[in-house]
Amino acid sequence: EDQVTQSPEALRLQEGESSSLNCSYTVSGLRGLFWYRQDPGKGPEFLFTLYSAGEEKEKERLKATLTKKESFLHITAPKPEDSATYLCAVHPPGTYKYIFGTGTRLKVLA
Amino acid sequence: NAGVTQTPKFRVLKTGQSMTLLCAQDMNHEYMYWYRQDPGMGLRLIHYSVGEGTTAKGEVPDGYNVSRLKKQNFLLGLESAAPSQTSVYFCASSTIAGGPDTQYFGPGTRLTVL
User: Fold this and answer.
1) Which of B48, B59, B102 sits opposite A49 (nearest CB)?
2) Three-state SS annotation for B67-106
3) Over the stretch B18-42, which tens digit does the pLDDT of each residue have?
4) pLDDT tens-digit series, residues B70-106
5) What one-character DSSP code corresponds to residue A28?
6) Residues of A numbered 19-48 whose beta carbons fall under 8 angstroms of chain B's beta carbons: which are they?
7) Considering the domain A3-109, what is its CATH architecture?
8) How far is CA A36 from CA A50, B2, B31, in A?
9) What domains does chain B contain, in order, with CATH numbers?
10) Taking CA B63 as the corner, what is the angle to CA B57 and CA B67, rounded to the nearest 5 degrees?
């Protein structure tokens, strides 16, 4: 069964304390892996799309990487405004459906 | 561009009442989706559409109906609301044109069924 698991469920960091969020997936092939940021009461906001193992994407303090079984979202020197829930999703080939993880709730303390 | 918009933002219903949620996108995307988001469950696909006039069932379609009469609009209907349908509903759209089929989400509708 296609599945996406994110860890940890919640993470508290001090401002400037770098860390990584994990997204592991079990799918029969991968058309794309997506990272989203979701603020309370808002819709998911697109961050990155990764297509193949070894690919990396960066945006400000965020860097996403992809292997054959998992993806990491690295947060370098986070700031309080990076506090949000980060969602991972995969898009298996041959389907219009996307499979979402339950997210990692990140809190960055000043 | 407004992107993906949803109306209403909030709604309270009594059990058995009906309502329609409207999703509109101005990005000329072919594909549109309706999800519900519940604590600890992640986003679950209700119905989706791959083009005007076509719809298909997702993971949790029971109790919902959809229509896509115009390319830019995707409607989600609840014929007889139940407390189990209390949730936050998100609409999304995507396109295959140009390669990336990234989904873009609306701001959500928070629905409470009493």
Assistant:
1) B102
2) ECCCCCEEEEEECCCCHHHCEEEEEEEECCCCCCCCCEEC
3) 999 999 999 999 999 999 999 888 8
4) 999 999 999 999 999 999 999 999 987 545 578 899 9
5) S
6) 31-32, 34, 36, 41-46
7) Sandwich (2.60)
8) 12, 19, 19
9) 4-113 (2.60.40.10)
10) 55
